[in-house]
Amino acid sequence: MNNSWHRAFGVYGLYIYNDKLLVIRKSRGPYRNRYDLPGGSLEEGEGLTEALQREFAEETGLKVIRKNQIGTADFKLPWSWKQHTHVHHIAVFYEVERVEGALAAPIQFDGQDALGTSWISEEEVAQDQASPLVIEAFNWIKNKQCSAEPVVYKEWRVVEQSEEAPWNQNG
């Protein structure tokens, strides 16, 4: 069987406070019930920074500014969706800073894929609980560089609700 690829492109923010990373819990997609970074795809005519700020506010309740662009990474993994067998996720990472707002449960609307937020340290997260973006974020925090080559996951499992990691919503 030939692989059919879905290409996903998005912008994501790393908000670090007291040596912890702010993450969201995904409600759908290949990262369902895993920790993921706040962010997502661009809307029609939207620039990278605009999309980052909109997505961050929608998913966390925080208004942020972009401190710097960290880099770009891409991930390839098996995922059955529509007619596709795999996803190629291209992510642009930014370090962000909060300018106002408080963490809040995301308002649910069609297209919203975040269920809540949590602060995590690298020691608190395992690969089977996190999206590749979170793993790459901790790589950047530790080494100050993003992977130069695509990260390929030959095996990938979408986590079902009953298997989800302990969740500290808005903690």
UniProtKB/TrEMBL annotation:
Residues 4-142 form the Nudix hydrolase domain. The keyword Glycosyltransferase does not apply. Keywords: Hydrolase. Its EC number is 3.6.-.-. InterPro entries: Nudix_hydrolase, NUDIX_hydrolase-like_dom_sf, NUDIX_hydrolase_CS, NUDIX_hydrolase_dom. One of its GO terms (molecular function) is hydrolase activity. Belongs to the Nudix hydrolase family. This is NUDIX hydrolase.
